[in-house]
Amino acid sequence: MTAASTSSPDSPTGPGYYRLDEATGELLATDLAASMWGENHLHGVAVSGAMARALEHRVAELGRADLRPARYTVDLFRPATTDPCVVRTEVVREGNRLCLVDATYLQDDVAVARASGLFLRATGSTAGETWSPGSGAESDLVPPPLEIAPVTTEAHVPFIHSDDVGWSQDFTQHQNASRKQSWSTGPSVVVGEAPTPFQAVASLADGASLVTNWGSLGVEHINTDITLVLAREPDGVSIGLAATDRREDGGIAVGTAAVFDRSGRLGTVVVSALANAKRVVDFARVEYADDGTRRTSPGA
User: For the residues of 36-79, what is the DSSP string, one character each?
Assistant: First the structure.
């Protein structure tokens, strides 16, 4: 469920999607987690980030520093609201070379979303030769130039690239039917906690729906899931997504995006989405200030 607001609550440690209630263990959504799909709704970036954080914490509690995330699957089957939430985890299987952990996002004891994380132990490459597309096939997976988007760990308004325009942070320029890419730096999932590379890529993977479903009239499809596969972890918390494929029939769309950072491609995201014509996110009327505050013109 993409279409995230980027208004940033100030804190000494930077913005975050949630605040942690130390007394209850509940996560309390901030304005940064609010979506444009409807009042009182959260976007999938925040919900996915909360579950990725819980999975990563559970693996750390097991003492498995030898494992790294390889697959992350999310089902977004109910609208998450601004009400307090908890994320519960369960270890499905732990072995020598893998650990499979499930997470459930609950509000008032009702499951709103679920996730599954597969963590694997790297053991080194084999000697045989296998096919790969080669560097030439991915020559267009290039982040914005450093003079436009310097290396940073601070969250910012996403840079968007459409083939007709190039890179910019002006969303109104990219309301078109050309292929899109995004470049984002993930904020903290929880205020006061530094985001990890896995939390950043797992939350920002929801943006695959944006780059694959944003067209000439806005975002007319809402994604119901996220499947992220990683050959390696990102080299930081800045993540690029580039649309590589989209298929639609009868209002059901499947979009695929490449995941990359400044070191190159690291994985793939696939999202399924449903037509949502009654609640189109129209970015032609939305502008973002330098501080990330969203400004919406009349009629949006």
Answer: SSSTTBBPHHHHHHHHHHHHHHHHHHTT-TTEEEEEEEEEE-S-
Instruction: Please answer whether residues 230 and 119 qualify as being in contact, where contact means their C-beta atoms are separated by less than 8 angstroms.
Output: no
Residue 199 to residues 104, 117, 255, Cα–Cα distance (Å) = 16, 12, 22
Measured CA to CA, the distance from residue 123 to residue 98 in angstroms comes to 11
Mean of the per-residue pLDDT values of the chain? 89
Instruction: Tell me which H or E stretch contains 238.
Output: strand 238-249
Could you give the dihedral angle defined by the CA atoms of residues 182, 210, 19 and 234, in that order, rounded to the nearest 10 degrees?
-40
What whole-number distance in Å separates Cα of residue 173 and Cα of residue 285? 10
pLDDT digits (tens, 9 = 90+) for 178-227: 999 999 998 999 999 999 999 999 999 999 999 999 999 999 999 999 99
Question: pLDDT band at 49, cuts 50/70/90?
Answer: very high
**Residues in a beta bridge with 245:** 256
Torsion (CA) 245, 175, 182, 167 in degrees, nearest 10:
120
Counting beta carbons within 10 angstroms of the beta carbon of residue 182, is it exposed (0 to 12), middle (13 to 18) or buried (19 or more)?
A: buried
Q: Count CB neighbours of 148 within 10 A.
A: 13
> Where do the DSSP E strands lie in 147-213?
159-162, 166-168, 180-185, 188-190
**Of 164, 215, 157, 203, which Cα lies nearest the Cα of 182?**
157
Max CA distance (Å), the chain: 61
Q: Is the dihedral of CA 81, 86, 90, 95 positive or negative?
A: positive
Structure tokens at 17: 């999607």
In the DSSP assignment, the letter for residue 148 is T
